[in-house]
From TrEMBL:
Keyword DNA repair: no
Subcellular location: Cell membrane
Organism of origin: Nocardioides oleivorans
Protein name according to UniProt: Cardiolipin synthase N-terminal domain-containing protein
Record key words, sorted: Cell membrane, Membrane, Transmembrane, Transmembrane helix
Residue ranges of domain Cardiolipin synthase N-terminal in the record: 26-69
Length: 71
């Protein structure tokens, strides 16, 4: 399957790409703000490692939400 360029995509495909990108940015921003505001005692593992882990899209932010925060 050949890689499509932006101009080769249909309007629906372009919309999906844009919406997915916005969702990833919003999720990552929310997680980073939560990490910054959350006390270290309420984070599993070192906070300094969770920041770079969130750059792995979309696994990092989801992992932080599922396993990184203590309730």
């Amino acid at each position: 399957m050949a890689k499509k360029s932006w101009s080769d995509m249909s309007n629906t495909q372009r919309t999906v790409v844009v919406v997915t990108g916005v969702a990833e940015i919003a999720l990552t921003t929310w997680c980073l703000r939560d990490l910054k505001a959350r006390p270290s005692e309420l984070v599993r593992g070192p906070k300094v490692l969770w920041g770079p882990a969130m750059s792995v899209q979309p696994v990092g932010p989801i992992a932080y939400l599922v396993w990184g925060r203590k309730r």
